[in-house]
Amino acid sequence: MSTLRWSKAGILAGFLVLSLPLQAADLERRQSELKAIQAQISQQQSALKSTGKQRERLIALLKQDEKAIADAAGAINRTQGESAKVSTKLQQLKQRSEQLERLKQSQQQSLSKQLASAYLAGSHDYSKMLLNQQSPATIERMLAYYQYLNKARIKAIDQLKLTLDELQQVRSQQLDEQSRLERLIVEQKDQAKRLGAEQSQRQLTLNELQKTLSERGAELEQLQIEEASLKRVVEEALRAAKESPSMKGLASQRGKLGWPTKGALNVSYGSTRSGQIKWKGVMLAAPEGQNVFAIAPGKVIFADWLRGFGMVMVVDHGEGYMSLYGHAQALLKEAGDTVQTGDAIALVGRSGGQTEPGLYFEIRHKGQAVDPAGYCRR
C-alpha cells in the first residue's frame, strides 16, 4: 500500500511539473497575441472596419483568458474540497487514536491485575492439595477457576495486541493524511498564483476591448450580438432537452424557490439595458468565488463560455422550464450532469467582460424569459 500510495503521489507531482510549463507557455502566447492586436489597433484606429476585426480578435482572446481563469478557479475549488475532506479525516483519526490510547491503558491495567492474581495463585501446590486429601470436588473447582483465569489472560493479551495493531495503523494513516494535506496546501498556493496571473492577463485584454466599444453604437451592436448568441443557445438547449418523469418543472414552485446565491438585486428583470434592449434576467451582486446553487432539481444541458455572458450554465427542470446562470468564474458541473436543489454548480465571477463580480440569472419557460422574482422567495 505504501509503495502504491507514493507511486500515485509521484505521478501527481510529475503531472503538476509537466502542466505548469504548458500553462505558462499558453499565457505567454496570449500575452504576445494581445501585444500584436494593441499595435494594430494603434495603427488602424481610424478605420472602423479594421477596429471591428480587432474587436472580434479581442473577444476571442477574452474567451481564452476567462476559460483559463475558470480552469484555475475550478482547480482551487477542487483542492479546497479535498483539503476539507483530509482535515475531516485527520480529525476522525485523531479521535480514534485517543479512543484506542484510552482502551490500551485500560487493557494494560486489567492485564496487570490478572497477572498479579495469577502470581498469588501460583503459590498453591496442587500435589499438597492431593496429599492433604482435599475433596475431589474442591480440587475440580479450583482447577476450573485457574483455567478460567488463564483463558481470561490469553483473551486480554489478544485484545491488547489488536488494540496496539490498530493504534499503529491509525498513527500511520495520520502521518499519510498530514503529508497529503501539506501537498494540497502547496498545490493550492501554486493554483492561486496561476489564477492571479490569468486575471491580470484578462484585465489587459478587457482594457483593450473596452477601447473598441467606446462608441455607443458599437456597444449596442455588441449587446444585440450577445442577445442573438443567447437566443441560439436557448433554442438549441430546448431541442436537446429530453423530458424525464422525475422533472416536474417550476410551475408548482412559484414564490417558493431560493435564489441561486446571496446578494443584492442590482438589475431587475425587464429594466432597460440599452436602446430597445431589455434585461431578460436579473443581476445579483455577490463576492467573486461565492457558490452558486441550483434552484431546483434538473439536468445540465449547457455549460460553456458564451459571448457577453462568460461562463454560462443552463439547467433543464422539465415541463419547458430552464434556469440560466451567467458571468461565472468557474462551472462546477458539466453538460449531462444531474443536479439537485441546493447543489453547488458554479462560482460567482465577472466573466463575459464584466468589471464587477456578480451573477446573471434567468428563468425561462418554453424559451421565453420570465421574471425570476415570481419564482424565488423575496
Automatic annotation (TrEMBL):
One Gene Ontology term of the molecular function aspect: metalloendopeptidase activity
- Any idea which UniProt keywords this protein has? Coiled coil, Signal
The source organism is: Shewanella cyperi
- Record PANTHER family: MUREIN HYDROLASE ACTIVATOR ENVC, PEPTIDASE-RELATED
Q: Does the keyword Membrane apply?
A: no
The keyword Coiled coil appears for this protein: yes
| Signal peptide range in chain numbering | 1-24
Looking at the record, the residues that make up the M23ase beta-sheet core domain are 279-372
InterPro entries per record:
Cell_wall_metabolism_enzyme (IPR050570), Dup_hybrid_motif (IPR011055), M23ase_b-sheet_dom (IPR016047)
Q: Which residues form a coiled coil?
A: 76-110, 157-240
Protein name per Swiss-Prot or TrEMBL: Peptidoglycan DD-metalloendopeptidase family protein
